Amino acid sequence: MPKRGKKYLETGKGHDFTAKLGLREGIELALEATYVKFDESVDVAVRLGVDPRHADQMVRGTCILPNGLGKEVRVLVFARGEKAKEAEEAGADYVGLEDLVEKIQGGWFDFDKAVATPDTMGVVGRIGKLLGPRGLMPNAKTGTVTFDVARAVDELKAGKIDFRVEKAGIVHAPMGKKSFGPEKLEENIRAFLDSIIKLKPSAAKGAYIRGMAVSTTMGRGVKVDTLTLK
């Protein structure tokens, strides 16, 4: 087992972290069981009753969190002409095409999300092996390959997240900041869960949401009773 620090161990006193709690209680305990001074991110992990090895059980989608992520999202847009101008007016942080591709090939990745118009994907494809592993490659399934660049930029700035089930059947996603407080975090988590439920594959059998935990960046994971989520 990994060696835990004194402050981490102190947060566990007086609490049973093996118990499953209601969603609000779980959030409150996760916020209480923290010991760092910075405004940590709050994350959620949901275990689904799917086998991602089968294409008909893959769960992938997007969700606009009602309270955002609590951080500035730097959006890059690959576009030409009028669409480039539209992206700039919408508040994109970086707009261009060949010039941005060249910068990225040189090792520059100072952005959080990327959007591309369909007509630029031939050029953007050159750096797919650089963007893909970092989760930055524009994708039509997540709404980041589109001619409606203004809407895409607005949604990403507002806190739109994309998610995908991992090999173990677990979906991880950030839900905001510790400073949001329990109410706003619960609103974000419930919006995220609604998105996951709507994407339930028809091939999935038995219980769909089988487990869930909430945690802060440096804190303990708190288990949530999935039966209380309805």
UniProtKB/TrEMBL annotation:
Listed InterPro entries: Ribosom_uL1_bac-type, Ribosomal_uL1, Ribosomal_uL1-like, Ribosomal_uL1/biogenesis, Ribosomal_uL1_3-a/b-sand, Ribosomal_uL1_CS
GO biological process terms on file: regulation of translation; translation
Record's keyword terms, sorted: Repressor, Ribonucleoprotein, Ribosomal protein, RNA-binding, rRNA-binding, Translation regulation, tRNA-binding
Gene Ontology molecular-function annotations: rRNA binding; structural constituent of ribosome; tRNA binding
One Pfam assignment: Ribosomal_L1
Any one GO CC term of the record: cytosolic large ribosomal subunit
Described function: Protein L1 is also a translational repressor protein, it controls the translation of the L11 operon by binding to its mRNA. Binds directly to 23S rRNA. The L1 stalk is quite mobile in the ribosome, and is involved in E site tRNA release.
Family: Belongs to the universal ribosomal protein uL1 family.
HAMAP family (alphabetical): Ribosomal_uL1_B
Subunit (UniProt): Part of the 50S ribosomal subunit.
Protein name (database record): Large ribosomal subunit protein uL1
Organism of derivation: Desulfobotulus alkaliphilus
UniProt lineage: Bacteria, Pseudomonadati, Thermodesulfobacteriota, Desulfobacteria, Desulfobacterales
Gene, per the UniProt record: rplA
